[in-house]
Design goal:
By secondary structure, the chain is α+β, with helices and mostly antiparallel strands. It has two domains: about 160 residues, DNA methylase specificity domains (Adenine-n6-DNA-methyltransferase TaqI, Chain A, domain 2); about 170 residues, Adenine-n6-DNA-methyltransferase TaqI, Chain A, domain 2, CATH 3.90.220.20. It contains eight helices and 21 strands. The protein is globular.
């Protein structure tokens, strides 16, 4: 049995009690901020939506300060998605997001524990049966209790701190392993001393294909990433289990052709692609070459917008400027070593800071 500061970490051996959300939280809905009418790329305050990933964050906006939610920490839950997240900073949101304000002062770690209990009930809500504020207030959840039958917030906090420390240790072990994978890089000249050339996308990639439309109502919840036009979290906009009438890609770049136009990410895993993104693939590229090119491709966002998408015709005419070798061809060896060196320097710097 694991312990942390004398707190039992085996949740099977503690007492639990049932509580309605309204017993523990004040509930309110967000104010009317229309995400389609604000610029989410250049603002300074977080914009939280009902999306199921990235803590609900859908960019940063500037808007009327009276609309800011300044209570923290709080839990936000989207009506249709029923996905709970903890927010510990000021944010904007819309009327489709519920905000749970604790009636007692509790820590962010405690709220993170409570969100896991709320998630247990997520499957019963949908777009046709939303977790609106009325239903949310009456939703019952199970929580650890103390000898008085009250929520044991102290245990919840210590449990989450313990879990966080476990994850930090896993992360540090991953970094140490990753350093071994990239330390064999070869020194290359700086970017400003390298010759560059211009190439059409179809000269760089031998497989360019748009994803396929999957209506929101047709999403089947699952474990495969669903990549759309989000500029956050590698473009992941949820997880699905759909197998029919979808396009599944892997080991490629995804570039948003609408929405957050130009957002480009390397996708090393299998994912379902929406019609708002296009796959850029070359089966000879490794992850380092893809990462280098993705940083260049992102600059296409400067010439496109919500009103001017990267459609199939335009993408065939697009060009990227890349480092070239003495033969005037893209220097993929240079790109690989440049990214390896950059990653090695970042990771070793992190490890040195942790050792101080």
């Amino acid at each position: 049995m694991k312990t942390y500061n004398n707190i039992i970490m085996d949740l099977r051996n503690i007492n639990w009690g049932e509580f309605e959300i309204q017993d523990l939280f004040y509930t309110k809905i967000g104010k009317n901020v229309d995400g389609n009418k604000v610029n989410k790329s250049n603002g300074t305050t977080a914009y939280i939506t009902r999306k199921e990933s990235d803590n609900g964050l859908d960019g940063f906006i500037d808007f009327k300060t009276v609309f800011i939610n300044s209570d923290s920490p709080v839990i936000t839950i989207g009506n249709e998605t029923a996905e709970p997240f903890v927010q510990d900073y000021p944010f904007f949101t819309g009327t489709k997001v519920n905000i749970l304000i604790p009636k007692k002062i509790v820590s962010k770690s405690t709220l993170l524990f409570i969100t896991q209990s709320i998630k247990k009930h997520k499957s019963k809500y949908s777009y046709s049966f939303t977790i609106n504020s009325t239903r949310l207030k009456r939703q019952k959840i199970l929580l650890p209790i103390n000898t008085k039958g009250e929520p044991n917030y102290s245990l919840m906090e210590q449990y989450m701190i313990h879990k966080e420390q476990e994850n930090i240790e896993k992360f540090e072990n991953y970094i140490a392993k990753r350093v071994e994978e990239v330390k064999d890089y070869k020194e290359v000249e700086p970017l400003n001393q390298k010759e560059w050339g211009e190439f059409y996308l179809n000269e760089i990639f031998n497989n360019i294909q748009r994803g396929k439309r999957l209506k929101k109502d047709d999403h089947k919840k699952g474990e495969m990433p669903y990549v759309s036009s989000s500029a956050m979290n590698n473009g992941i906009d949820g997880f699905v289990s759909n197998k029919n009438n979808v396009r599944v890609f892997k080991n490629c770049l995804s570039i948003a052709n609408s929405g957050s136009v130009g957002s480009t990410f390397f996708q090393p895993f299998s994912f379902v692609a929406s019609d708002h993104i296009t796959k850029l693939e070359n089966d000879k590229f490794n992850e380092f070459v893809y990462l280098f090119i993705s940083s260049i491709a992102k600059r296409l966002s400067e010439k496109y917008s919500f009103n001017r998408e990267i459609n199939d015709k335009r993408i065939q005419r697009e060009k990227l400027v890349l480092p070239i070798n003495p033969n005037g061809k893209p220097d993929y060896v240079y790109m690989e070593n440049y990214i390896k060196r950059l990653e090695y320097e970042k990771l070793t710097k992190y490890l040195k800071i942790k050792m101080k």
